[in-house]
Amino acid sequence: xxxxxxxxxxxxxxDVAHLATELxxxxxxxxxxxxxxxxxxxxxxxxxxxxxEAVVRSTRLPVDAHLMIEAADRWAPAYAEAGCQVVTPxxxxxxxxxxxxxxxxxLGAQAGLALRPATPLEAVESVxxxxxxxxxxxxxxxxxxxxxxxxxxxxxxxxxxxISEQNLSVRLQVDGGVSRQTIERAAEAGADTFVAGSAxxxxxxxxxxxxxxxELASAHQH
Length: 222
Ligand SMILES: O=C(CO)[C@H](O)[C@H](O)COP(=O)(O)O
Ligand SMILES: [Fe+2]
Fold this sequence. Notes:
The chain is an alpha/beta fold. The chain is built from nine helices and eight strands. The chain has a single domain, classed as Alpha-Beta Barrel (TIM Barrel). An eight-stranded parallel sheet has the order 1-8-7-6-5-4-3-2. Ribulose-5-phosphate (5RP) binds next to strand 2, strand 3, strand 8 and helix 8.
């Protein structure tokens, strides 16, 4: 069974000079998605722990940290300590996903795990039971504003099947190119948690955009 559709806007391309105002624009969202990039795991540098802490302090919404960084085992626990509700390192960047998930739980956070588009689901199959959230990337990680990779839809379906077969309640998140044009197909395929960056922040009325995305997703969930 899917969870009710959650919309978690990415603040990657918001106006960081006005962080508090930008967070108010999405006050009706289900969470805030903070993209951490280290210019090694991905060819881009965004921000790290101090900004994640500032976001946690500046919103009442739960914060999910998407860690596009190497040495995830070394750095991910600090995001749990900073008050992020969900911490999502990449499976390609952790040596010990189970130990890391358990460490995140011990620190009071939920444990996520993300997959690059080219990483097969088999990489997480045996550790799904330790997770609260599985993130299937629908763009190559590194930049906002890219086009949704349609070829990820079968992977989302298989991820949903794996979660059901193992009788788990892991959230299935999609991230990258999610908009009114793509969210229905992602929901149909089995996603229940939707990151949308440019679609929300480029809208004149971000609150209305969040609501529209949620309604479209809900209408297409199984
Ligand atoms: O992880 C990411 C990029 O690596 C971002 O979360 C994602 O790109 C959101 O932006 P958009 O909705 O514009 O694609
Ligand atoms: Fe992200």
